[in-house]
Amino acid sequence: MAQAIEAGASIIIVGGAIIKAERVAEAARTIKRAMKERKAIPTGLYKKYGEAEVREAFLKVSTPNLADAMQKRGPMKGIVPRIRHGTKMVGRALTVKTADGDWAKPVEAIDRAGPGDVIVVDAGGGTTAVWGELASHSCQVKGVTGVVIDGAARDIDTILEINFPCFSRHVVPHAGEPKGHGEIGSEIECGGQRVRTGDWVVGDESGVVVVPQEEAVEMANRALDVLERENRLREEIKRGGTLSSVLELEKWEKVG
Known about the structure:
Layout: H1 2-6, H2 24-37, H3 54-60, H4 63-69, E1 80-81, E2 89-97, H5 104-112, E3 117-122, E4 129-131, H6 133-142, E5 146-153, H7 156-162, E6 166-171, E7 183-184, E8 188-190, E9 193-195, E10 200-204, E11 207-211, H8 216-238, H9 243-246
Parallel strand pairs: 2-3, 3-5, 4-5, 5-6
Antiparallel strand pairs: 1-6, 2-7, 2-10, 8-9, 10-11
């Protein structure tokens, strides 16, 4: 901004950061003062994240932020967090297709997964476990970020104890047998969402959202925008505004 003024600019478009500041009027005065004094002012609001920073951006937002940013396209349905309070999972998907109770391919996928990956298993929503504590511990040693299973997991008490992020449709005490059906790396469906190897998977206490890899940068920045706007609304509520008044809800209501 200081460089623009030095170059002779008389009008400066500030952008979205000012309206997402906790105190908008104060932020406007700060910007005007900086313009007058020809000084640059730092802001962490609405930083634009690039491809190399996608993981960092996703770690800053919640799955509700991301779901809003994607207009409800990415959330997995029926996949329940089996995690400690405050746990966050972000990584690139390694997909697995298997049959109910057949844990061979999910376990083989651990050998193929790299640090930061999330193993995503399509077990057809089955009710016989294809995952447990030993698989989770093996992942943890390799640096695998977490697992998502459209099917069943077991040993949840121990998985929680070692703090390995696990999300599954069912929890049961019994496992199946390693028959070797299925494949690793193919396109699958998990929680009603299409998942491909390389897509981004974000999980927390609200659930799991999958982001197509080609949309990751855009959706990460959109989710940060949602977060920053929510932070501003929260501050307005703290100062006495009700949610309906802060949102100007009357403008959205249908008249009829």
